[in-house]
Amino acid sequence: MDHRPPHPSHRQVGEPRLPLLAVPFALIAAVTVVDVLAPPDVHLGPFLVAAPALTASFAGPRMTGFVGAVAVAAQVTVAVVRTTATDLNHTFQIIALVLISIFVTLFAHLREVHEKQLTQLRSVAGAAQEVVLRPLRDRMGPLRLASVYLAAEAEAQIGGDLYAATRTPHGTRLIVGDVRGKGLEAVGDAALVLGAFRAAAHQEADLPTLVAHLEAAVAADPDGADGADEPSDDPGEAFTTAAVLDIPDREMTVRLISCGHPPPLLLRGGRVIPLEVDHPAPPLGLTRYVDTGFAPQSFSFEPGDTILLYTDGVIEARDAEGTFYPLPERAADWPGDGPDALLRHLCADLLAHSPGGSLGDDAAMVAIERVTGV
Questions:
Q1: pLDDT score of 229 more than 90
Q2: Degrees (nearest 5) of the Cα angle 245, 261, 268?
Q3: In the chain, where does DSSP find H-type helix?
Q4: Does position 2 have pLDDT exceeding 70, yes or no?
Q5: Is the pTM of this model over 0.85?
Q6: Which residues share a beta bridge with 273?
Protein backbone atom coordinates (compact mmCIF):
# COMPACT_ATOMS: atom_id res chain seq x y z
CA MET A 1 0.00 0.00 0.00
CA ASP A 2 1.38 3.38 -0.97
CA HIS A 3 0.36 6.20 1.35
CA ARG A 4 0.37 9.77 0.10
CA PRO A 5 -0.69 12.76 2.16
CA PRO A 6 -4.07 13.72 0.76
CA HIS A 7 -4.16 16.90 -1.23
CA PRO A 8 -6.04 19.42 0.87
CA SER A 9 -9.37 20.52 -0.51
CA HIS A 10 -9.19 24.18 -1.45
CA ARG A 11 -12.12 26.48 -2.06
CA GLN A 12 -12.16 28.28 -5.39
CA VAL A 13 -9.65 31.12 -5.23
CA GLY A 14 -11.43 34.37 -4.39
CA GLU A 15 -14.69 32.58 -3.53
CA PRO A 16 -16.26 34.37 -0.55
CA ARG A 17 -17.16 32.43 2.55
CA LEU A 18 -20.86 33.25 2.62
CA PRO A 19 -21.46 32.93 6.40
CA LEU A 20 -18.65 35.42 7.02
CA LEU A 21 -20.13 38.01 4.63
CA ALA A 22 -22.90 38.69 7.13
CA VAL A 23 -20.35 40.10 9.58
CA PRO A 24 -19.17 43.21 7.62
CA PHE A 25 -22.72 44.05 6.49
CA ALA A 26 -24.03 43.67 10.04
CA LEU A 27 -21.18 45.89 11.23
CA ILE A 28 -22.03 48.56 8.66
CA ALA A 29 -25.72 48.48 9.61
CA ALA A 30 -24.99 48.63 13.36
CA VAL A 31 -22.49 51.50 13.10
CA THR A 32 -24.81 53.48 10.80
CA VAL A 33 -27.84 53.17 13.07
CA VAL A 34 -25.92 53.94 16.28
CA ASP A 35 -24.08 56.88 14.63
CA VAL A 36 -27.34 58.43 13.45
CA LEU A 37 -28.88 58.12 16.91
CA ALA A 38 -25.77 59.17 18.84
CA PRO A 39 -25.34 62.62 20.42
CA PRO A 40 -23.87 65.34 18.15
CA ASP A 41 -20.40 65.14 19.71
CA VAL A 42 -20.14 61.33 19.21
CA HIS A 43 -18.88 60.09 15.81
CA LEU A 44 -18.71 56.36 15.08
CA GLY A 45 -17.98 56.67 11.36
CA PRO A 46 -14.31 55.64 11.69
CA PHE A 47 -15.47 52.18 12.79
CA LEU A 48 -16.80 51.59 9.27
CA VAL A 49 -13.26 50.98 7.98
CA ALA A 50 -13.35 47.64 9.79
CA ALA A 51 -15.93 46.30 7.31
CA PRO A 52 -13.79 46.33 4.11
CA ALA A 53 -10.65 45.46 6.10
CA LEU A 54 -12.36 42.37 7.53
CA THR A 55 -13.75 41.39 4.14
CA ALA A 56 -10.28 41.53 2.55
CA SER A 57 -9.12 38.76 4.90
CA PHE A 58 -11.43 36.13 3.40
CA ALA A 59 -13.00 37.43 0.17
CA GLY A 60 -11.76 38.53 -3.23
CA PRO A 61 -11.18 42.06 -4.48
CA ARG A 62 -14.66 42.44 -6.04
CA MET A 63 -16.48 41.65 -2.82
CA THR A 64 -14.02 43.75 -0.80
CA GLY A 65 -14.56 46.70 -3.14
CA PHE A 66 -18.34 46.24 -2.91
CA VAL A 67 -18.28 46.20 0.89
CA GLY A 68 -16.07 49.30 0.82
CA ALA A 69 -18.56 51.07 -1.44
CA VAL A 70 -21.44 50.12 0.87
CA ALA A 71 -19.45 51.46 3.85
CA VAL A 72 -18.80 54.75 2.01
CA ALA A 73 -22.50 55.01 1.12
CA ALA A 74 -23.38 54.42 4.78
CA GLN A 75 -20.95 57.15 5.85
CA VAL A 76 -22.50 59.59 3.35
CA THR A 77 -25.96 58.68 4.66
CA VAL A 78 -24.86 59.41 8.24
CA ALA A 79 -23.41 62.76 7.14
CA VAL A 80 -26.60 63.80 5.35
CA VAL A 81 -28.87 62.75 8.23
CA ARG A 82 -26.76 64.32 10.98
CA THR A 83 -25.48 67.50 9.30
CA THR A 84 -24.51 67.71 5.64
CA ALA A 85 -22.27 65.73 3.26
CA THR A 86 -20.00 68.78 2.98
CA ASP A 87 -19.43 69.00 6.71
CA LEU A 88 -15.65 69.11 7.25
CA ASN A 89 -15.55 66.30 9.81
CA HIS A 90 -17.67 63.94 7.72
CA THR A 91 -15.81 64.91 4.55
CA PHE A 92 -12.51 63.77 6.03
CA GLN A 93 -14.13 60.56 7.31
CA ILE A 94 -15.49 59.81 3.84
CA ILE A 95 -12.14 60.50 2.15
CA ALA A 96 -10.28 58.31 4.65
CA LEU A 97 -12.81 55.51 4.19
CA VAL A 98 -12.49 55.69 0.38
CA LEU A 99 -8.68 55.51 0.55
CA ILE A 100 -8.67 52.61 3.01
CA SER A 101 -11.24 50.73 0.92
CA ILE A 102 -9.04 51.11 -2.16
CA PHE A 103 -5.99 49.94 -0.22
CA VAL A 104 -7.61 46.80 1.21
CA THR A 105 -9.16 45.99 -2.18
CA LEU A 106 -5.66 46.03 -3.66
CA PHE A 107 -4.51 43.81 -0.80
CA ALA A 108 -7.32 41.35 -1.56
CA HIS A 109 -6.27 41.32 -5.23
CA LEU A 110 -2.65 40.53 -4.34
CA ARG A 111 -3.76 37.78 -1.95
CA GLU A 112 -5.95 36.27 -4.66
CA VAL A 113 -3.03 36.24 -7.11
CA HIS A 114 -0.84 34.54 -4.49
CA GLU A 115 -3.53 31.93 -3.80
CA LYS A 116 -3.75 31.13 -7.51
CA GLN A 117 0.01 30.66 -7.65
CA LEU A 118 -0.08 28.30 -4.65
CA THR A 119 -2.93 26.32 -6.20
CA GLN A 120 -0.95 25.89 -9.41
CA LEU A 121 2.16 24.90 -7.45
CA ARG A 122 0.22 22.28 -5.49
CA SER A 123 -1.18 20.89 -8.72
CA VAL A 124 2.24 20.69 -10.38
CA ALA A 125 3.82 19.20 -7.26
CA GLY A 126 1.12 16.56 -7.03
CA ALA A 127 1.66 15.59 -10.66
CA ALA A 128 5.44 15.51 -10.13
CA GLN A 129 5.00 13.23 -7.14
CA GLU A 130 3.03 10.72 -9.18
CA VAL A 131 5.75 10.71 -11.86
CA VAL A 132 8.88 10.72 -9.69
CA LEU A 133 7.67 8.65 -6.74
CA ARG A 134 5.64 5.95 -8.38
CA PRO A 135 3.45 3.98 -5.98
CA LEU A 136 5.05 0.75 -4.77
CA ARG A 137 3.20 -2.46 -5.40
CA ASP A 138 1.63 -4.09 -2.35
CA ARG A 139 3.26 -7.41 -3.17
CA MET A 140 6.56 -8.20 -4.91
CA GLY A 141 7.49 -11.87 -4.89
CA PRO A 142 7.67 -13.09 -1.27
CA LEU A 143 7.50 -9.52 0.04
CA ARG A 144 4.71 -7.23 1.21
CA LEU A 145 5.48 -3.52 0.93
CA ALA A 146 4.09 -0.18 2.08
CA SER A 147 5.44 3.35 1.77
CA VAL A 148 4.64 6.86 2.95
CA TYR A 149 5.93 10.31 1.99
CA LEU A 150 5.37 13.36 4.18
CA ALA A 151 6.30 16.74 2.72
CA ALA A 152 7.46 19.45 5.12
CA GLU A 153 6.48 22.34 2.85
CA ALA A 154 2.84 23.33 2.84
CA GLU A 155 3.14 24.58 -0.74
CA ALA A 156 4.45 21.32 -2.17
CA GLN A 157 3.85 17.62 -1.87
CA ILE A 158 7.31 16.47 -2.84
CA GLY A 159 10.94 17.24 -2.06
CA GLY A 160 14.30 15.48 -2.20
CA ASP A 161 13.42 12.21 -0.46
CA LEU A 162 13.10 9.19 -2.73
CA TYR A 163 12.30 5.49 -2.79
CA ALA A 164 11.71 2.83 -5.43
CA ALA A 165 11.50 -0.94 -5.81
CA THR A 166 11.86 -3.20 -8.80
CA ARG A 167 11.80 -6.90 -9.53
CA THR A 168 14.74 -8.86 -10.94
CA PRO A 169 14.85 -12.48 -12.13
CA HIS A 170 16.10 -13.54 -8.69
CA GLY A 171 14.52 -11.15 -6.23
CA THR A 172 13.62 -7.55 -5.39
CA ARG A 173 15.83 -4.48 -5.29
CA LEU A 174 14.97 -1.34 -3.37
CA ILE A 175 16.43 2.09 -2.79
CA VAL A 176 15.63 4.80 -0.28
CA GLY A 177 17.52 8.07 -0.33
CA ASP A 178 17.67 11.73 0.53
CA VAL A 179 18.96 14.42 -1.82
CA ARG A 180 20.83 17.34 -0.28
CA GLY A 181 18.78 20.52 -0.53
CA LYS A 182 15.13 21.33 -1.08
CA GLY A 183 12.79 22.64 -3.75
CA LEU A 184 12.70 21.95 -7.46
CA GLU A 185 16.46 21.35 -7.69
CA ALA A 186 16.19 18.56 -5.13
CA VAL A 187 13.23 17.11 -7.03
CA GLY A 188 15.33 17.04 -10.20
CA ASP A 189 18.21 15.30 -8.43
CA ALA A 190 15.81 12.76 -6.91
CA ALA A 191 14.38 12.06 -10.37
CA LEU A 192 17.93 11.54 -11.69
CA VAL A 193 18.74 8.92 -9.02
CA LEU A 194 15.41 7.14 -9.41
CA GLY A 195 15.71 7.09 -13.19
CA ALA A 196 19.19 5.59 -12.98
CA PHE A 197 18.02 2.99 -10.45
CA ARG A 198 14.99 1.93 -12.49
CA ALA A 199 17.05 1.69 -15.67
CA ALA A 200 19.90 -0.36 -14.18
CA ALA A 201 18.33 -2.45 -11.41
CA HIS A 202 17.14 -5.06 -13.92
CA GLN A 203 20.43 -5.20 -15.83
CA GLU A 204 23.26 -5.03 -13.31
CA ALA A 205 24.15 -8.50 -12.10
CA ASP A 206 25.41 -7.52 -8.66
CA LEU A 207 24.70 -4.82 -6.13
CA PRO A 208 28.12 -3.07 -6.22
CA THR A 209 27.84 -2.59 -9.97
CA LEU A 210 24.35 -1.14 -9.57
CA VAL A 211 25.49 1.33 -6.92
CA ALA A 212 28.51 2.26 -9.06
CA HIS A 213 26.06 3.05 -11.85
CA LEU A 214 24.06 5.30 -9.50
CA GLU A 215 27.26 7.03 -8.41
CA ALA A 216 28.22 7.66 -12.03
CA ALA A 217 24.80 9.14 -12.76
CA VAL A 218 24.96 11.53 -9.80
CA ALA A 219 28.60 12.53 -10.29
CA ALA A 220 28.43 12.92 -14.08
CA ASP A 221 26.96 16.41 -14.02
CA PRO A 222 26.74 17.82 -10.50
CA ASP A 223 26.52 21.44 -11.67
CA GLY A 224 24.25 21.02 -14.65
CA ALA A 225 27.06 21.52 -17.19
CA ASP A 226 27.00 19.19 -20.13
CA GLY A 227 29.78 16.68 -19.98
CA ALA A 228 31.46 18.44 -17.11
CA ASP A 229 34.35 16.41 -15.80
CA GLU A 230 35.61 19.26 -13.64
CA PRO A 231 34.70 18.83 -10.00
CA SER A 232 32.41 21.38 -8.42
CA ASP A 233 33.97 24.29 -6.56
CA ASP A 234 32.14 22.99 -3.51
CA PRO A 235 32.76 19.24 -3.12
CA GLY A 236 29.66 18.90 -0.97
CA GLU A 237 27.41 20.83 -3.31
CA ALA A 238 25.45 17.89 -4.70
CA PHE A 239 25.12 14.49 -3.09
CA THR A 240 22.52 11.91 -2.16
CA THR A 241 22.52 9.58 0.81
CA ALA A 242 21.07 6.20 -0.08
CA ALA A 243 20.50 2.67 1.12
CA VAL A 244 20.32 0.10 -1.68
CA LEU A 245 19.01 -3.38 -0.91
CA ASP A 246 18.90 -6.66 -2.76
CA ILE A 247 16.45 -9.23 -1.34
CA PRO A 248 16.71 -12.66 -3.01
CA ASP A 249 13.53 -14.69 -3.31
CA ARG A 250 15.06 -18.02 -2.24
CA GLU A 251 17.70 -16.90 0.25
CA MET A 252 16.67 -15.76 3.72
CA THR A 253 19.01 -12.77 3.54
CA VAL A 254 19.11 -9.13 2.54
CA ARG A 255 22.20 -7.58 0.98
CA LEU A 256 22.73 -3.93 1.80
CA ILE A 257 25.00 -1.13 0.62
CA SER A 258 24.72 2.05 2.65
CA CYS A 259 25.92 5.29 1.10
CA GLY A 260 25.90 7.57 4.12
CA HIS A 261 22.26 6.77 4.89
CA PRO A 262 20.70 6.01 8.30
CA PRO A 263 20.67 2.25 8.94
CA PRO A 264 17.48 0.29 8.16
CA LEU A 265 15.71 -1.27 11.10
CA LEU A 266 14.94 -4.99 11.25
CA LEU A 267 11.80 -5.76 13.28
CA ARG A 268 11.83 -9.33 14.52
CA GLY A 269 9.74 -10.79 17.35
CA GLY A 270 9.30 -7.48 19.18
CA ARG A 271 12.98 -6.56 18.81
CA VAL A 272 14.35 -3.73 16.69
CA ILE A 273 17.79 -4.39 15.19
CA PRO A 274 19.64 -1.62 13.30
CA LEU A 275 21.28 -3.00 10.16
CA GLU A 276 24.61 -1.24 10.60
CA VAL A 277 27.10 -2.04 7.85
CA ASP A 278 30.76 -2.41 8.77
CA HIS A 279 32.05 -0.38 5.82
CA PRO A 280 29.58 2.29 4.71
CA ALA A 281 30.30 4.14 1.47
CA PRO A 282 30.19 7.93 1.12
CA PRO A 283 26.98 9.48 -0.21
CA LEU A 284 26.39 9.24 -3.94
CA GLY A 285 28.21 12.06 -5.68
CA LEU A 286 31.08 12.14 -3.20
CA THR A 287 32.88 8.85 -3.79
CA ARG A 288 35.20 10.45 -6.34
CA TYR A 289 36.75 12.32 -3.43
CA VAL A 290 37.24 9.14 -1.37
CA ASP A 291 39.09 6.00 -2.39
CA THR A 292 36.43 3.44 -1.50
CA GLY A 293 34.41 0.63 -2.98
CA PHE A 294 30.86 -0.55 -2.66
CA ALA A 295 30.90 -3.63 -0.46
CA PRO A 296 27.51 -5.22 0.26
CA GLN A 297 26.85 -6.72 3.66
CA SER A 298 24.37 -9.55 4.24
CA PHE A 299 21.87 -9.79 7.09
CA SER A 300 19.37 -12.47 7.96
CA PHE A 301 15.86 -11.73 6.70
CA GLU A 302 13.40 -14.50 7.49
CA PRO A 303 9.64 -14.98 7.00
CA GLY A 304 7.79 -12.80 9.50
CA ASP A 305 10.60 -10.22 9.63
CA THR A 306 10.00 -6.60 8.62
CA ILE A 307 12.61 -4.12 7.41
CA LEU A 308 11.91 -0.41 7.88
CA LEU A 309 13.66 2.04 5.57
CA TYR A 310 13.44 5.76 6.31
CA THR A 311 15.02 9.14 5.62
CA ASP A 312 16.57 11.49 8.15
CA GLY A 313 13.44 13.65 8.20
CA VAL A 314 11.95 10.96 10.44
CA ILE A 315 14.70 10.66 13.04
CA GLU A 316 15.47 14.39 13.03
CA ALA A 317 11.90 15.45 13.77
CA ARG A 318 11.84 17.30 17.10
CA ASP A 319 9.11 17.83 19.64
CA ALA A 320 8.39 21.13 21.42
CA GLU A 321 11.32 20.53 23.78
CA GLY A 322 13.78 19.77 20.98
CA THR A 323 13.88 15.98 21.51
CA PHE A 324 14.49 13.92 18.39
CA TYR A 325 11.90 11.36 17.37
CA PRO A 326 12.89 7.97 18.93
CA LEU A 327 12.14 5.80 15.90
CA PRO A 328 13.55 2.47 17.21
CA GLU A 329 11.60 2.74 20.47
CA ARG A 330 8.36 3.70 18.70
CA ALA A 331 8.80 0.95 16.11
CA ALA A 332 9.21 -1.55 18.96
CA ASP A 333 5.75 -0.55 20.23
CA TRP A 334 4.15 -1.71 16.99
CA PRO A 335 1.93 -4.76 17.69
CA GLY A 336 2.82 -6.37 14.36
CA ASP A 337 0.04 -6.41 11.77
CA GLY A 338 1.76 -5.96 8.42
CA PRO A 339 3.80 -3.15 6.84
CA ASP A 340 0.74 -1.04 6.07
CA ALA A 341 -0.28 -0.95 9.74
CA LEU A 342 3.31 -0.24 10.77
CA LEU A 343 3.51 2.89 8.63
CA ARG A 344 0.09 4.10 9.75
CA HIS A 345 1.23 3.70 13.36
CA LEU A 346 4.55 5.49 12.82
CA CYS A 347 3.11 8.23 10.64
CA ALA A 348 0.45 9.18 13.21
CA ASP A 349 2.98 8.99 16.03
CA LEU A 350 5.55 11.08 14.15
CA LEU A 351 3.06 13.86 13.42
CA ALA A 352 1.89 13.80 17.04
CA HIS A 353 5.54 14.14 18.13
CA SER A 354 6.10 17.21 15.93
CA PRO A 355 4.75 20.59 17.15
CA GLY A 356 1.53 21.37 15.35
CA GLY A 357 1.85 18.18 13.33
CA SER A 358 4.34 19.94 11.04
CA LEU A 359 7.68 18.40 10.14
CA GLY A 360 10.87 20.41 9.77
CA ASP A 361 12.04 18.29 6.83
CA ASP A 362 10.53 15.92 4.29
CA ALA A 363 10.20 12.36 5.55
CA ALA A 364 9.76 9.03 3.76
CA MET A 365 9.39 5.49 5.04
CA VAL A 366 9.20 2.09 3.35
CA ALA A 367 8.28 -1.11 5.18
CA ILE A 368 9.10 -4.56 3.73
CA GLU A 369 7.82 -7.78 5.23
CA ARG A 370 8.95 -11.23 4.09
CA VAL A 371 5.88 -13.42 4.19
CA THR A 372 7.22 -16.58 2.53
CA GLY A 373 10.54 -18.14 1.74
CA VAL A 374 9.82 -18.55 -1.94
A1: no
A2: 55
A3: 18-37, 50-55, 61-82, 88-132, 183-200, 207-220, 312-315, 327-332, 339-353
A4: no
A5: no
A6: 266
